[in-house]
Structures
1.
Amino acid sequence: MMNLMQRLASAPGSVIVDKQVKALKVIASEARELAEHIASRGRVLVWTDSVEELIRVITAATSVQADVFVAHRSISAQRINELVSPLRINQLFRSGILETYDSFESGGSGFLYVMTSGTTQFPKIAKHTADTLFGTIKQTAGSSLARWLLTYPPTSFAGLQVTFSALIGGGNLVAPPQRTMSSFVEAAVTQRVTHISGTPTFWRSFLCLLPQESAALHLEQVTIGGEAVDQSTLDRLRAALPCARITQIYASTEAGVAFSVNDVKAGIPVEWFDGEIGGVQLKVVDDVLHIRSPRILQRYESGEASPFDAEGWLCTGDLVRKEQDRFVFAGRADGRFNIGGFKVSPEEVESVLLQCEGVADVLVLAEASPISGQVLVANVVPYNGRSVGELKKSVQRFAYERLEPFKIPRIIRIVKGIEAAESGKKVRL
Amino acid sequence: MIQDRPMTNAELMERISTFVTEIRINKGLRAVVVDSTTSLLDGDSGFDSLDLAALVVELQSVTEYDPFDAGFIDFTTAGELATLFARDAK
């Protein structure tokens, strides 16, 4: 199994939190001290939003073959206490302090447990290892020491991926003081960030703040994933950041890092469904992507049924649609609306409306209607300086020209912004 | 655009007329005069059921009032729909 302690102690990078630089060697030596207090083969739960503490605890615990549960800081203290007994936690790391309980038998084996974002219910807990989580990380390419910006919550699967990709890969990690778009842009400029990974919603918002700042950016790598990636967002990234490499990544708490696409075309090449790609097999069942991979979770620790079928395929819940030589993503299978008897994917409609000039971002939702059950509504964010009335009309015309009647949002509202969750994804209710 | 007083029948008719006209233009149909006798349900207006649903949601949103709260109330013409939402007539 991957030895995080060894990898980090020999890595040249630093963690930069709110402009305070801390060398990885120092964090590794603190982790070594902490490891002396962690019960070998115990089970530790870490509850913090400090990325530096997370690195320290994960590294320390895995070095003594203890299991680590990474809990979101947004979970209540009461709920954390309630998790201790069913998860057989021996030690709890919170507020910078390691608390030890003696009442539970140990039984850890160096597993890493990661929570889903849990937007609608309590997060699921996915069982991984350092290998399934970080096994694909390579030395980061580039002329100088890479500087990665952490846009995701540090405790999320994506946040852990970015953190350890930066550090194991030999680079630095930059965490801004607040997780707001203006802090991200400011950190990207002042900290000379070279690598950013974010959701399509993050990038569309980031690009809106760019025109005056893009000359000051040093971006070499743009990574986009976590939501369906559409062609117009990729085109905008290409145009705004002509020198950066643009990578679509397909990864989730359940699937681990599955694959990435580097040709700046939306979707997955169809030929990838014939063999395997980096040890990952893909198939489509009822328009939903299924994957089989050595890096998917081992099981849920939170009691949910196994997400695998008998042959070990994971149903991702992501809809795909064949378009020429690609399978393009068309939203979440459980996120479709019933409009006049037809299933409509909001992400698919959004990908069309994003092609309309003047649209910075768009959220498609359904509202209850006494006439037809549900009616489709599009909340449209204009680029700065657009006339609201004109944009509404042009979006409407665009929708009527390009979409089937039941997919046309019959109500267009011009809004200032679209709410994104902690995970960087659009909030869909 | 939400007003601090209930909308009158005439204001609602204007709203409905604008909505119908926009839909017709988007569908490549020529604009027509919408009056209180214009039928919204038989297809003459160029409306389908989803357009009508959208119009009702729009009226609910601008008036902050839902005449269908207690169940569906039958209507056919633009005038009848305006009356359902107008508070000055009640």
Note: Chain A touches chain B at residues 339-340, 367, 369-372, 375-377, 393, 396-397, 399-400, 405-406, 408, 410-411 (CB under 8 Å).
2.
Amino acid sequence: MTYSEIVKQIKKQQISPVYLVYGSESYFIQQFKSVITNAVLGENKDELAVYDLEETPVQEVVRDAETFPFFEERKLIFATNPIFLKAKPGSLDFEHDLAVLEAYLDQPADYSIIVFIAPYDKIDERKKISKQMKKKASVVPCNTIKEQDTGKYLDEMAVRYSVQLDQDAKEIMETEVSANLHLLEKEVEKLATFAGKDGVVTKEAAEILLSHTPENSSLRLVDAVIDRDLHKAISIYKDLEKMKEEPIALIALLAFQFRMILQVKLLKRKGISQFDMQKQLRAHPYVIKIALKRERRFTLEGLHRIMDKLAETDAQMKQGTMEKSLSFEFLLYDLIQNQ
Amino acid sequence: MSYQALYRVWRPKQFQDVVGQTHITRTLQNAIVQEKFSHAYVFSGPRGTGKTSAAKIFAKTINCEHAPVKEPCNECAACLGIQDGSISDVIEIDAASNTSVEDIREIRDKVKYASSSVPYKVYIIDEVHMISVNAFNALLKTLEEPPKHVVFILATTEPHKIPLTILSRCQRFDFKPISNQTIVDRMNTILEMENIEVSPEALETVALAAEGGMRDALSILDQAISYSNDTVELEDVLAVTGGVSQQILTDIVKVMHEKDVQSALTMLDKLIAGGKDPARFVYDLIYFMRDLLLFKSAPELGGLLERARVDESFKAITEQVSNEWIQEAIMELNQCQQEIKWTTSPKVFIEIAIITITNRYQKQESAADTQDAAAVMKLTSKLDQLEKEIAGLKQQSAGNTQPAPRREVQRTQARSSKTSFKVPYERIRNVVQQAEKNLRKQVQGQWGSFLSQLKTANAPAHATIQDSKPVAVSEDAVVVAFKYEIHCSLFLDHRQTVETVLGSVMGKSLTIIPIPEQAWQEVRTEFINHQEQAATREEEQKPDPIVEQAKELVGEDLLEVHD
């Protein structure tokens, strides 16, 4: 079952007695926690217990689960870090009695709900307890989302915050915020408050409000250079400068991009497929894809010249023969005007 | 009452006073009115853009007695208390001096307690990027699930130093540098209230110098006001910032471009006599030129200029000068700026720079003389031809030498060139006879360091010997095999230097005997053959040691040797 299906079931009050939440996307884990807390306990949080299995043995958790709830009909238990599911559990100063847990999995108490939260990428599937868990508990996968799925979640968040995102605004957000769902949600929340309830987030609003991470800004800088937009390039550089970004680092970044384009261009001439390029260059497929798109706009000589220019400016800065920021601006000017 | 600096008097007290950040103030106000504000914020942006002010106003607004409101009333007890810092629920922490985990733990422990006099506890942590990694981790837990009555506002100039785990839990606002126009407008309102007259040019220059920071702008303005008499003029501001007025910069660029050396130099002289810092002048001039260049290539860049105000004379000059001219001028001035650092008489260098810039194009024009160019073309083509011929000759000779018998080659070469090298076979054989393997190992081990030392001592000598290797070493001599014969003879010119360096590296003086590699191979095989023969002979002659011993023990008479 996928994450969203399970969430839907929980909202319909179809709740399993044991859940295993695993994956490294903390956004989903948090969301799941709040969904299940609301479904099981509602407003009253008296019967919520939280254990850390790196500090508490699992048998104690099970004992708690087998105890009748005091104030409510049901109780909810979060048990984080079940390291006994990991391939290489670190050493602890106590032992998890897994037999107790197995017995409980066979006959769970009908008044308790245990949620095991494993914020790990992988659990060891060969272990007996893992197999048992997979069989008896509802497994909630919380894996990090793929870059291309960002749009989907963006739409979903927009609905949740009752705000409309312009197509342009959406595009900007997708490229700027990348696949970090926490950040994405915060940005949507921010835009939503800016636009007001049922408001529309325009491109302008998104541009002015979105936070720029240095990495993203640097990438935009590269884009601007490639698009030959001097105005944009310089203003992005000014922003980066205000954020105390080191020009030498920016040169390295530009160099990386142009080098990738050059490499892809050369490989393409040899008639090598995109997949093989990826293997040869050991780069992310997306990077290759973008480089392939850009490669057409440069001649081989042009790329050589750009690389030379970058190296020259780098040396200039390191030798201190020219002020760094001035030198960088000249580089931008040169790259853009003399292509 | 003591005098309070302008920027302190006019620190914003309402959202509306935080200028240039309307997108942020509007979002914050919406959040407050809808009572949907987040429990943690990050305010990032360059200095003087209103981060701390916005944080304080935010604290006041959510705690104002009339809340939810769009602006704090600044009249109720809560607002006034927060304003003068007497309410202990709004806590401003300077993270630059409270960087340790303990400081953050203290916050964490106290967060639990309910606020005492206003509804919300607000923690304003200034310069938050300064706290340690551990402290961030300690803060993380609190940020993740803070009590309902707490709001964190983290202000920083360097958001990239904050871990992503913190950032992703906060709502983040990037404060933008304030545009020059906005700064000017704000200063105008302040000046109106303060009843001070300032000329518009002066204000614009202040805004340029402030580089997007309101506080800087007000500080400069403050100084200019104290410096001036009645109204603040452009000169007052320039005196405070140490800048040069745009008019002068424009003029000087213009006369340089018009190749009027005399007026350019007089202007410089006047400036320096007027007490301007020469280095600062060059700096200003460079940035002025940069602005020119940028404006020429992208006129919409208006807001990004660093020195120049776009006015009529500025536009006029951009039309006159060419991009190349500006670029070269900047390079020249940059060079000049470097040189100024090391000299006590900067004026000379500036003068030279100005003269070079002014005269440059004349020189180039003469260089590009057509007759010269033709002559150069002719010469280069001739050179090419010669080169080809030489290459051809080389190939021929190379083809000849290899198959020919060795001795003959030597003879022909001896005839063809004076520098030809004669192999001292006798001496080499001598050395080879006395050669020892471990001695050679020693020399080979030190060879690298010897080469590098030689390189620093005498580069040409190093060049002759670098492709060679020591092949046989005796107590006092080294045989060095060179790839080519020519190197042997070249080496002889540097022999003394090389030997002294080698001597110092090895700790004893050694004579170097050069030999071409080919000849060495011959000597070697000859020697090995010789040795093998000798060895077999020796073996034949040498009596068995056991037999010898036996002889000593029992005497020859009693022995009978069976093979």
Note: DSSP finds 16 helices and seven strands in chain A.
